[in-house]
Design brief:
The protein is of the alpha+beta class. The chain has helices at about 85-100, 105-120, 130-140, 175-180, 185-190, 200-220, 230-235; strands spanning about 1-10, 15-20, 25-35, 50-60, 65-75, 155-160, 165, 175. The strands form 2 sheets. It has a 5-stranded antiparallel sheet with strand order 3-2-1-4-5.
Length: about 240
């Protein structure tokens, strides 16, 4: 079964807790023995953010933390070795962990994440907008993809309804017209065309703040992301 690494936590000197997004069962946590030996059946080094694995595991209901019985990495070509991609992977893994922790398994969502990781790993250049495109289209799987069709000039953007409006909403969760003007540009991006859109570091940071705040409004108990500031600094 395919799985994607979202997080690892050192539980003791000998064990890790590994959080995986699995193809069939959604987010699961595993207790895994720490091992650096090249002869080990499952190596700790395989559990890097957004690493892709083929796994089997002991699925007995009595065990709150499951144990992997086998794991085989699907090697990544560039993500672990290019600092910009590594930072992006760290952020997206944390983002997925926060948003997916209580979501049921979704094969379509899993395929979207799996294929997006492959695209990032094989892309050689012009990937600085990848995380923005990924987060925008991820929202459709949760049922709250924003409607960013080109608005009339001077429109506000209502973060709660996910739509543009000519009248300023009474609640505070709104983007002012000067802040909202970048959103139609984001809507036009996809993985194939995003290299055509030239954004400044500040514009990219504005769009990332928008996506983070938008998810925070629509995902219950959305935690603060530790890696957000690091990503903003790298792509500023």
């Amino acid at each position: 079964m395919h799985a994607i690494v979202l997080n690892t936590i050192k539980y003791s000197d000998k064990d890790l807790i590994v959080e995986l997004l699995t193809e069939k069962d959604g987010c699961l946590s595993f207790m895994q023995r720490i091992s650096t030996s090249k002869r080990a059946k499952i190596r700790t080094a395989w559990f890097q953010p957004l690493a892709r694995l083929d796994v089997d595991y002991d699925d007995r209901p009595a065990h709150k933390l499951k144990r992997l019985t086998t794991a085989q990495p699907l090697p990544l070509l560039t993500i672990p070795y290019e600092p910009a991609k590594t930072t992006m992977a760290l952020f997206l893994a944390e983002f997925l962990r926060v948003t997916m922790r209580s979501e049921p398994a979704s094969p379509l969502l899993f395929d979207y994440v799996w294929n997006s990781i492959e695209w990032l790993d094989t892309c050689r250049e012009s990937f600085a907008n990848f995380h923005l495109v990924f987060l925008l289209h991820l929202a459709r799987f949760f049922g709250f993809e924003p409607n960013l069709e080109a608005p009339s000039p001077n429109c506000y953007f209502d973060l709660e309804s996910g739509t543009f409006t000519m009248v300023r909403p009474l609640h505070p969760n709104v983007l002012l017209p000067e802040e909202a003007q970048l959103l139609p540009t984001l809507m036009r991006m996809n993985l194939a065309t995003m290299h055509l859109f030239k954004l400044s570091g500040e514009q990219r940071s504005q769009l990332l703040r928008f996506m983070n705040n938008y998810y925070k409004l629509h995902i219950p108990n959305f935690a603060e992301l530790k890696s957000l500031k690091v990503l903003q600094e790298v792509f500023a």
